[in-house]
Amino acid sequence: MGKLVYSMITSVDGYVSDPAGGFEWAGREEVHRFVNEASRAFGTYLVGRRMYEVMSYWETAHLEPGQPDVALEYARIWQAADKVVYSTTLETVGTARTRLERTFDPDAVRALKERSERDLTVDGPTLAAHALRAGLVDEVQLYVGPAVVGGGLRFFPDGVRSRLELLDEQRLAGDVLFLRYALPTLAA
After folding, report:
1. Three-state secondary structure of the chain
2. How large is the average pLDDT for residues 46-67?
3. Which of 3, 6, 35, 107 yields a CA-CA distance of 20 to 30 A from 179?
4. Across the chain, what does the average pLDDT equal?
5. What is the rounded distance in angstroms from the CA atom of residue 41 to the CA atom of residue 126?
């Protein structure tokens, strides 16, 4: 049985993007290497339309000239994984190993976890909010960047409460902190 993991880079004040939708403050090559290693555990990505549109870049990133090795490595990881896109507006998907679902069905995700041999990741705070509220998320992984952005899209949705159990913490390059928590109890 696979775990469902919610993992994103956040600002110190808990946002995955700033008020303009940017997240330039979030990355460094050394952090990307760490993310690549963590991503190897994922056999399936659950994404909403907006996150899919951002992440689908990795389907053809290897064709872009001058890509660093760390980017090419992540492109291979993304391409090898299954993807489930949840969208009521997207008409088709343009990446391999991808299927489109119109609604987020907690029972279907629960069944997917049960039959999965590898972990799954729910990407993007909007879709993750559905999974968190349904009690499906087993673990959260935060890459906390050294920035306060003052607003934007929050990592955790309003109204969700949980006691977290710290599983791992590491200081990464550029003063980024990696925090990994189990979600033993969750209440909306």
Report:
1. CCCEEEEEEEECCCEEECCCCCCHHHCCHHHHHHHHHHHCCEEEEEEEHHHHHHHHHHHCHHHCCCCCHHHHHHHHHHHHCEEEEECCCCCCCCCCCEEEECCCCHHHHHHHHHHCCCEEEEECHHHHHHHHHCCCCCEEEEEEECCCCCCCEECCCCCCEEEEEEEEEEEEHHHEEEEEEEEEEEEC
2. 93
3. 107
4. 92
5. 22
Q: Is the pLDDT of residue 186 over 60?
A: no
Provide the pairing of β-strand 42-48 with 119-123. Answer: parallel
- The CA dihedral of 35, 31, 72, 69, to the nearest 10 degrees, is -140
The span from the CA of 149 to the CA of 62, in Å, is: 31
Q: Which two tokens stand for residue 139?
A: 């673990």
**Residue 85 φ then ψ, to 5°:** -105, 125
Taking the CA atoms of residue 79, residue 101, residue 132 and residue 153 in that order, the dihedral angle to the nearest 10 degrees is 70
Cβ pair 30, 68 in contact under 8 A: no
Q: What are residue 98's DSSP bridge partners? A: 83
Question: What is the rounded CA–CA span in Å between residue 87 and residue 104?
Answer: 9
Which amino acid is residue 66, in one-letter code? G
Taken in order of first residue, the domains within the chain and their CATH numbers are 4-173+182-187 (3.40.430.10)
Instruction: State how beta strands 4-11 and 161-172 pair.
Output: unpaired
Alpha carbon 80 to chain centroid distance? 16
